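re: that chain from earlier
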Amino acid sequence: EEVMAISDRLTVLREGRKVATVSTADTHPRELARMMVGREVIFDVEKEIIPRGKPVLEVRGLEARNDRKLEALKSVDLEVHAGEILGIAGVDGNGQSELAQNLTGLRKIDRGEVRILGHNATHRSPQDLIRMGTAHIPEDRQRVGLILDMTVGENAVLEVHGRPPFSRMGFLDQKAISRFAEELISLYNVKTRGPDAPAGTLSGGNQQKLILAREMSRNPRLLVAVHPSRGLDVGATEFVHRQLLARRKAGGAILLISTELEEIFLLSDRIAVMYEGEILGVFRTSEVTRETVGLLMAGSRVRGHTGDPAE
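^ sequence. v structure.
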């Protein structure tokens, strides 16, 4: 949208090669996307209507502080059900990062309760939460999602390396790790020279695919996805969106945190709006406008739109 708005001519690069130079007036976004990716890109996704299941994630009265010891979350109440994507909309820095870290064991909870599949998960470690069926696509794929100096294969089993078949009698089974990584590379179309390549040699989009492949491989009951398409090209974004919808169809519960309203409206069944650590409203996506969500993101409390997290 930006280059279409301000440029006179456009040059498209793909995999280090010039594809074409065109006059902006003579092209359109879909054609640009096709040239960037090398195929047609589907911008609209088909979100099947599926019955919503029981609550997988229940958050009640959650309070937490940020790195500066200031209040970041204020009595947050949320529910995410099986077969549902709940989108968290908000301007960056309004408590979304702290919420994701609280739910994945990366930040201390000051007050409140978190339950996963009916079990108390309030002060559990990341490893405990993984065992309870939680997966996490983190906000920062390079600092939190991957260990860049380690291989693609090692990153693929970071969370399960101590379990069979990847570990036997305390020793890693490198052949089992490589076989597993090769399956993920093929299934998720991760462009790499192989399981032995350092994760830091992958492009940003392929690093994100590797994280997605690793987290999805455990068939998580709850997926906390933070800015899952940030910095990705249109082709990688389309792929990530399809995988999230596939997990939803399989009965997974997804908490989607994104500052991109288009992404929130495209994928979410319900939308919760965060402002200064509070949930100002929860709405069915089909029953709320972008204007209403935008006003709430700016802190305006819209009369008649309070929402209900249990709906």
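The chain is about 30% helix and 25% strand.
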